[in-house]
């Protein structure tokens, strides 16, 4: 995995009104402007491969508490779940319960929230394309799709009460997330999938781009994915997310998914070449380190 300074954004000190984003593995991002904080997905437990593939999984509250402490998270306005596979939604109800957050997502995510004991007033089923305001943030969940091959499709129609097999966490609706803050825009693409033309009309200076299994897709797929996400919003900086081995605990350094699952080198080679051709900067997010995603980017005219 690239680690040179040219790949990394420097740490950003907290300043009044300054947006800082912290990558916490998979597609979990903390967005914090010092007044309001949001979290995408909030997956911290990361059960091992054998348990995930052959056993039953449940949130590990000790691990969740330790990760919240390490990230400096005490209060959240919202936990925004971008689809309902276990590596996105499983811990979200527990995180919301511990931080006072509203759980936001699809009807399937709401069912997971109910199974996790959240009261109805702390669960918000999003309407795709409808903007929501939390402090200085305006967020919009936009229709999207999951990277192929699709596993555990369908809706969750009953509360999910762990422990359960990972297949109980069916995908439900899949979203892109557009975030507007201080006149700037961010795109969070939690899966390396896309829905055609749904991001038209949204502007984002920076894209946090899900790349899990993108290295195993065809060249044509990668080109379409870039066009329907990065190019569609006019992003000038891309930070890959969801590249790490989510069967490995967060207490250990992040490493890429196993080669049998993905080829991160192929993904980064494509992103680097395409970014150079289109004038888009490619950076790697540093886990646990708050950064200013707009640092060094000029304000749009």
Oligomer: single chain
Q: CATH class, anyone?
A: Alpha Beta
Give the amount of beta strand, in percent. Answer: 15-25%
Outline the low-pLDDT stretches. none
**Major beta sheet, strand line-up:** 7-8-9-10-11-12-13
Averaging pLDDT over every residue, what do you get? 96
In the CATH hierarchy, the third-tier topology is known as: Metallo-beta-lactamase, Chain A
Determine Rg (CA atoms, Å): 18 Å
- In total, the number of strands is 13
Count of alpha/pi helices:
8
Tell me the structural class.
Answer: alpha/beta
| Helix content range | 10-25%
Shape: globular
Largest sheet: 7 strands, mixed
Q: Give the topology string: H per helix, E per strand.
A: EEEHHEHHEHEEEEEEHHEHE
Salient structural properties:
8 helices; Metallo-beta-lactamase, Chain A; 301 residues; alpha/beta; six-stranded mixed sheet
General description of the model:
The protein has helices at residues 49-54, 61-71, 86-89, 92-99, 107-115, 219-228, 230-233, 264-278, and strands at residues 20-23, 29-32, 37-40, 78-80, 102-105, 123-125, 131-134, 137-143, 175-181, 184-189, 206-210, 237-241, 281-282. It starts with 19 loop residues before the first strand and ends in a 19-residue tail after the last strand. Strand 1 (20-23) and strand 2 form a beta hairpin. It is an alpha/beta fold and 301 residues long. The protein has a single domain, classed as Ribonuclease Z/Hydroxyacylglutathione hydrolase-like (Metallo-beta-lactamase, Chain A), CATH 3.60.15. It contains eight helices and 13 strands. The strands form two sheets. It has a seven-stranded mixed beta sheet with strand order 7-8-9-10-11-12-13, with helices on one face. The chain has a six-stranded mixed beta sheet with strand order 1-2-3-4-5-6, covered by helices on one side.
């Amino acid at each position: 995995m690239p680690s040179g300074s040219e790949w990394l954004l420097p740490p950003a000190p907290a300043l009044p009104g300054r947006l800082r984003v912290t990558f916490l593995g998979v597609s979990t991002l903390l967005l914090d402007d010092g007044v309001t904080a949001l979290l995408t997905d909030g997956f911290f437990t990361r059960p091992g491969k054998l348990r995930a593939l052959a056993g039953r999984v449940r949130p590990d509250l000790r691990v969740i508490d330790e990760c919240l402490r390490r990230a400096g998270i005490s209060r959240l306005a919202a936990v925004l779940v971008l689809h309902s596979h276990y590596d996105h939604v499983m811990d979200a109800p527990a995180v919301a319960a511990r931080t006072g957050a509203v759980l936001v997502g699809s009807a399937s995510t709401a069912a997971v929230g109910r199974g996790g004991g959240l009261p109805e007033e702390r669960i918000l089923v999003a309407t795709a394309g409808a903007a929501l305001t939390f402090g200085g943030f305006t967020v919009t969940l936009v229709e999207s799709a999951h990277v192929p091959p699709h596993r555990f499709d369908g809706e969750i129609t009953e509360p999910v009460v762990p422990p359960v097999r990972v297949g109980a966490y069916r995908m439900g609706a899949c979203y892109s997330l557009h975030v507007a803050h201080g006149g700037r825009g961010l795109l969070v693409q939690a899966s390396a999938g896309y829905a055609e033309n749904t991001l038209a009309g949204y502007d984002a200076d920076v894209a946090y781009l899900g790349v899990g299994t993108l290295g195993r897709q065809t060249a044509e797929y990668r080109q379409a994915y870039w066009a329907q996400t990065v190019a569609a919003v006019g992003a000038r900086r891309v930070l890959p997310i969801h590249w790490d081995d989510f069967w490995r605990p967060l207490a250990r350094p992040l490493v890429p998914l196993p080669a049998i699952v993905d080829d991160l080198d192929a993904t980064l080679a494509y992103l680097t070449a395409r970014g150079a051709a289109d004038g888009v900067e490619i950076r790697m997010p540093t886990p646990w380190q708050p950064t200013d995603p707009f640092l060094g980017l000029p304000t749009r005219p």
